[in-house]
Design a protein that fits this description.
The protein is α+β, with helices and mostly antiparallel strands. The protein has helices at residues 20-32, 71-84, 126-135, 142-147; strands at 7-15, 37-42, 45-48, 58-67, 99-105, 110-111, 116-117, 153-156.
Length: 159
């Protein structure tokens, strides 16, 4: 059987409980270490106020990886990394130690009970669009950035 082609994937990372920056740094390392996966780039980290939720500010980033994992296996791997970081899901939009979203999986259009790609709300969130535009400016239009400009998002210095 021929080896599966690498797929370009963008992942959204966020955390707002505990040491959020360390949680994202550890997640980048873990995601880059997944089998059949290579880390291509990580955006700057951004601080953002919770959107449609309460709690401390989030630290967010977008990661670009290339993988041979199918979208569902990648999702399972992401959820395992979240669980290792202490992620619990007591209610929708609850504060979290780590959140990893599959934003884009190549050109795939997936709509299942477990995974929707492209991520259904990514175009409404400055904390996704700003770091995504840093890595792949061709994927974010100027009008999309204008649409989310009222959301407070600030690039934070590295370390």
């Amino acid at each position: 059987m021929p080896e599966r082609e690498m797929v370009s994937v963008f992942l959204g990372l966020g955390a707002n409980l505990g040491d959020a920056r360390k949680a994202l740094e550890d997640a980048v390392t873990s995601l880059g270490s997944l089998p059949q996966t290579q880390l291509d780039a990580c955006s700057s980290f951004y601080r953002s106020e919770p959107l449609d939720a309460k709690g401390p500010d989030f630290i967010n980033a977008v990661l670009h990886v290339k993988t041979r994992l199918n979208a569902f296996d990648l999702l399972i791997a992401c959820q395992a990394i979240e669980n290792l970081a202490g992620r619990v899901r007591p209610y929708q939009n609850a504060p979290r130690t780590l959140d990893i979203d599959v934003l884009l999986y190549g050109d795939a259009q997936i709509d299942s009970n477990f995974l929707t790609v492209p991520h259904p709300r990514m175009r409404e969130r400055a904390f996704v669009l700003m770091p995504l535009s840093e890595l792949a400016p061709h994927l974010v239009s100027p009008s999309e950035l204008i649409h989310v400009r009222s959301q407070t998002v600030q690039k934070i210095p590295y370390r």
